[in-house]
Amino acid sequence: MNQTWCDTHCHSRPIHFNQTTVVCLSHQEILTHQVYKHFSAGIHPWWISNLNIADLDILKNHLNTLATSSGACAIGETGLDRLYKETWDQQVELFHWHWDLAETHSLPLVIHKVRSGSDFLGLLKAKKPKTPWIFHDYHGTPEEVESLIKLHSDCYFSFGVSLLKRETLHETVESIPLARLLIETDEESQLELPRFYEKMTQIRRLSAQELQHQISTNFHLLFKNS
Predict the structure, then answer these.
(1) What local confidence, expressed as pLDDT, does residue 13 receive?
(2) Are 138 and 157 in contact (CB under 8 A)?
(3) Residue 1 pLDDT
(4) Continuous H helices in the chain
(5) What is the arrangement of strands in the sheet containing 39-41, beginning at the earlier edge strand?
(6) Which residue from 3, 85, 137, 213 has the highest number of Cβ atoms inside 10 Å of its Cβ?
(7) 20: which residues sit within 8 A by CB, 6+ positions away?
């Protein structure tokens, strides 16, 4: 069986696995429409403090165009980060804007969540999404996973370098249905991706072939343009 390394969320460059990588566009790549075979695009909550209203409007216009591109696989990353308290209201407003954009174009939403689990549970109680949500670099508890899936059955949870650094996260990884599991490099080199797969096989007690088949199945069901 050929080795398949699907990478759900990638910031690093260059791209080593072009056929099975969803590249998250940088601020500059959004502005210049520098796209990849498969990509996601959104306004990261960390960017907000350095952007004025005109800057945000320009980015939104570009994102509206990029969302119709053939390689667009997802919207985001977007999200809520309570470590950035000074931009909280803007984060919430922008998250709703991305949510609407994802549903307009029937694309998954890639979510950055930091100390905001209860906020997302509140959002899901108020309104049910029409497209999948991907919680990237997920650090929540098994209880939170259960609550999120109960409110939105089309939630996915993606993991990368945290598998190697946070043993306390393993219980959460074990609690996630295999059909909702993904692997990513985020800001790590893509050359590290096989290590993350290896660690996941240990945590979930699967063979390398079983895990690669499952992640590949999840990846291609989730990203229709892949």
Answers:
(1) 96
(2) yes
(3) 37
(4) 27-32, 53-66, 88-104, 117-126, 142-151, 162-165, 170-175, 193-204, 208-222
(5) 7-10, 21-24, 39-41, 72-81, 109-114, 133-135, 155-159, 181-183
(6) 137
(7) 4, 5, 6, 7, 38, 216, 219, 226
Nearest CA to 99 among 79, 73, 72, 69? 79
C-alpha 78 chain-centroid distance: 9
Q: Quick one: pLDDT at residue 4? A: 86
What are the tens digits of pLDDT across the range 31-83?
A: 999 999 999 999 999 999 999 999 999 999 999 999 999 999 999 999 999 99
pLDDT at res. 62: 98
Distances (CA, A) of 202 to 74, 145, 167: 29, 20, 12
Mean pLDDT of 140-149: 97
Phi, psi of 69 (to 5 degrees): -70, 150
Give 129: exposed, middle or buried? Use CB within 10 Å, 0-12, 13-18, 19+. Answer: middle
Q: How far is CA 65 from CA 30, 31, 53, in A?
A: 10, 11, 19
Q: What percent of the chain has pLDDT over 90?
A: 97
- Asked whether the beta carbons of 138 and 108 are under 8 A apart, the reply is no
- φ/ψ (deg, to 5) at 128: -90, 125
Q: Which residues contact 100 (CB under 8 A, 6 or more apart)?
A: none
